[in-house]
Write a structure and sequence with these properties.
four-stranded mixed beta sheet; 17 helices; globular; RNA-directed DNA polymerase; single chain; alpha+beta; transferase; four-stranded antiparallel beta sheet; RNA-directed DNA polymerase activity; Group II intron reverse transcriptase/maturase; 11 strands
């Protein structure tokens, strides 16, 4: 079903789809949607009704729950409940918070069903420069894109930040974008109902939602990408076939005539515009971007949006990308490093687990550390990271050793007796159940392969570059 929707959407860019509501409440769609909701990490997080996925399965059973939900969708009695608001501190110690909206299990299943139907249609329209919350795309693709074009002369960067993007998207403008592809009034009404569902704050007050789509909803990333695709289409219009930057020859001709070329790289609401030109050309792009976002109810943050040269470095998605001279030579290259903020965040997590007075069992501490270290190193293993991994592994080891010294009143000789061989080689710190501390320094560091326009989605074969 999804493959057909995607194929039809790609074949006819102007097609508006009708009669999609039957697909939304189709039993197979609802079963697939429920499986996705039950498999998410937030399955045991309740909404305003206090029910989790486990409660639904225990009280009414999955078949009965889905039958009741399908009946309410078909007869039009389904109404989404307000989302439960949670305020999560933003990383970096800024003191600011991110507003998360937690829908009920019922609403999550309907949103997942809507996503199954809408995503393959809109994926046919999304530009290849968008990487966030899309099938088979990841943050490393966005970093590889910046590295690729930065190496080829795109050295001026508009490092942009949208103020409270998910909270300020204009509903009317967003629904107009959705209507460009969707004609079924029942599907449109369902999407609008989720946008207008309201919020139950942490203090118990109910607040109407006149703008925005709450972070935390399954449908929200798709709707945010639909809204921000207006930026992708504007900035990348010249790259379309027949455009003034559609081929390398045309781009080179523009640069010979003194005109700039540019490239957008976007991951959800985080994006940069790479410019092969001057600082003035990049400032002009800043004005254009602001004008394009305004009709969607969005604006760039004056404090966080900056024009930078790649030689000064740019932080994006936790990475620090910089054009610099290779040590011991006169050649300059674009390097991808690990940013300072993720390192501080990792150390904070490690310190919280390895406090000297901690009463947590060694087994639990090592398991949690291994989860954190494996995930963190897997994300950053494509950067220039070998020295960082080694230094951080030493930091973790020291924290754990000091915790054990305090807990058991061990001296240094006790540590060496337990964690070295007869030849003086260090052994990994191991819990009583045999769980050993993960060695992040052993992670292989490799360059991430730039995939460009060859990234396939779930419903098509890879396109040629």
């Amino acid at each position: 079903m999804q493959a057909k929707l995607h194929r039809w959407a790609a074949a006819d860019p102007g097609r508006r789809f009708d009669d999609l509501f039957n697909l939304v409440h189709d039993p197979a769609t609802l079963i697939g949607a429920f499986d996705r909701v039950a498999g998410n990490r937030g399955a045991q997080t309740p909404g305003v009704d206090g029910r989790t996925v486990a409660d639904v399965e225990d009280q009414v059973g999955t078949p009965g729950f889905l039958n009741d939900l399908r009946a309410s969708l078909k007869d039009g009695s389904f109404r989404p409940l307000p989302v439960r608001e949670r305020l999560i501190p933003k990383p970096g110690g800024s003191g600011k918070v991110r507003r998360l909206g937690i829908p009920t299990v019922t609403d999550r299943v309907v949103q997942a069903a809507l996503k199954l139907v809408l995503e393959p249609i809109f994926e046919a329209d999304f530009e290849p420069v968008s990487f966030g919350f899309r099938p088979n795309r990841r943050a490393q693709d966005a970093i590889a894109e910046i590295h690729y074009y930065g190496t080829r002369g795109y050295r001026w960067v508009l490092d942009a930040d949208i103020e409270a993007c998910f909270d300020r998207i204009e509903h009317v403008a967003l629904m107009d974008r959705v209507r460009l592809r969707i004609k079924d009034k029942r599907v449109l009404a369902l999407v609008k109902a989720f946008l207008k569902a309201g919020v139950l704050t942490e203090l118990g007050d109910q607040r109407d939602t006149t703008t925005g789509t709450p972070q935390g909803g399954i449908l929200s990333p798709v709707l945010a990408n639909i809204a921000l695709s207006v930026l992708d289409e504007h900035v990348m219009a010249s790259w379309k076939p027949g455009g003034t930057m559609s081929t390398e020859g045309k781009r080179a001709y523009r640069r010979r005539k003194g005109s700039p070329t540019w490239r957008l790289v976007r991951y959800a609401d985080d994006f940069v515009v790479l410019v092969h030109g001057t600082e003035g050309d990049t400032e002009a792009m800043r004005e254009q971007v602001g004008e394009v976002l305004a009709p969607m109810g969005l604006r760039l943050s004056p404090e966080k949006t900056r024009v930078r040269h790649l030689s000064d470095g740019v932080d994006f998605l936790g990475f620090h990308i910089r054009w610099r001279r290779k040590r011991g030579s006169d050649k300059w290259f674009v390097y991808t490093f690990i940013g300072d903020r993720p390192i501080r965040s990792l150390k904070t997590k490690v310190r919280a687990l390895t406090h000297r007075q901690s009463q947590l069992s060694l087994e639990y501490v090592i398991v949690r550390l291994n989860q954190i270290l494996r995930g963190w190193s897997n994300y950053f293993k494509h950067a220039v990271a070998k020295d960082r991994f080694t230094a951080l592994q030493h930091f973790v080891w020291q924290r754990l050793i000091r915790m054990l010294q305090t807990r058991h009143r061990w001296g240094w000789n006790d540590i060496r007796r337990r964690y070295t061989t007869r030849n003086g080689r260090w052994l990994p710190i191991t819990a009583a159940d045999g769980t050993a501390l993960f060695d992040m320094a052993s992670v292989t560091v490799t360059r991430y392969r730039w995939r460009g326009n060859t990234i396939p989605n779930r419903w098509t074969t890879p396109r040629t570059a």
